UniProtKB/TrEMBL annotation:
<comment type="function">
    <text>Catalyzes the phosphorylation of riboflavin (vitamin B2) to form flavin mononucleotide (FMN) coenzyme.</text>
</comment>
<keyword id="KW-0288">FMN</keyword>
<comment type="pathway">
    <text>Cofactor biosynthesis; FMN biosynthesis; FMN from riboflavin (ATP route): step 1/1.</text>
</comment>
<keyword id="KW-0418">Kinase</keyword>
<keyword id="KW-0285">Flavoprotein</keyword>
<dbReference type="GO" id="GO:0009398">
    <property type="term" value="P:FMN biosynthetic process"/>
</dbReference>
<dbReference type="InterPro" id="IPR023468">
    <property type="entry name" value="Riboflavin_kinase"/>
</dbReference>
<feature type="domain" description="Riboflavin kinase">
    <location>
        <begin position="18"/>
        <end position="189"/>
    </location>
</feature>
<dbReference type="GO" id="GO:0008531">
    <property type="term" value="F:riboflavin kinase activity"/>
</dbReference>
<dbReference type="GO" id="GO:0005739">
    <property type="term" value="C:mitochondrion"/>
</dbReference>
<dbReference type="GO" id="GO:0005524">
    <property type="term" value="F:ATP binding"/>
</dbReference>
<feature type="region of interest" description="Disordered">
    <location>
        <begin position="1"/>
        <end position="22"/>
    </location>
</feature>
<keyword id="KW-0067">ATP-binding</keyword>
<dbReference type="Pfam" id="PF01687">
    <property type="entry name" value="Flavokinase"/>
</dbReference>
<dbReference type="InterPro" id="IPR015865">
    <property type="entry name" value="Riboflavin_kinase_bac/euk"/>
</dbReference>
<keyword id="KW-0808">Transferase</keyword>
<dbReference type="InterPro" id="IPR023465">
    <property type="entry name" value="Riboflavin_kinase_dom_sf"/>
</dbReference>
Amino acid sequence: MRPDGPRPTIVGNSDGPEPPYPLKLDGKVIKGFGRGSKDLGIPTANIPLSGLSVGGHEDLESGVYYGWAGLSPSQAIEQQQSSGSSQYKLMKTEVFDKLSSMLADAATPAPTQGAVYPMVMSIGWNPFYKNTVRSVEVHIMQDFQTDFYDSHMNLLIVGFIRPELDYVSKESLIDDIKTDIDVAGRSLSRPAYIALAKDSYLSSFEGKGEIAS
């Protein structure tokens, strides 16, 4: 159940992630439960649960995290970059504008190396939908014109936002996810976190299969 009272608007130490963060995990983007876009209006990219075993993170607490996602080259990225559009409707305008401004000054991979985007992700059972399996669901904070299934995704998790909760309604779940997105946007819009978007790991895909070793 969602606790009463206002939520923090920003999380994590301003000087940068504290141990055990940042954490790295990756995998091939697979089809999930099909409800992110259709039911919630918040699309997610799923990776196999076995991705949590990378680096010994299988016991990672269920909840919501934030960080950076590197996507291998795909038609979806080419379309997004060629459109010149950086609109994203799920984040408050002032939060999005600040994050975009800071990212514009950061080095980005060449199109042939894929792309790096801010992300918010959930790891857990999603009790509102009564999942019977634990899942890794990543929401990339960027609008895409097409899907990118089978792309490889490298995740750099830089912090924890909140524990997994159950909800009395779909509307309250959506409200909390949108708050998660704003919290992630604000938290990433700090120099120590922007710098992590340049980590070469995020755009390193050579030799990677569905799950990194």
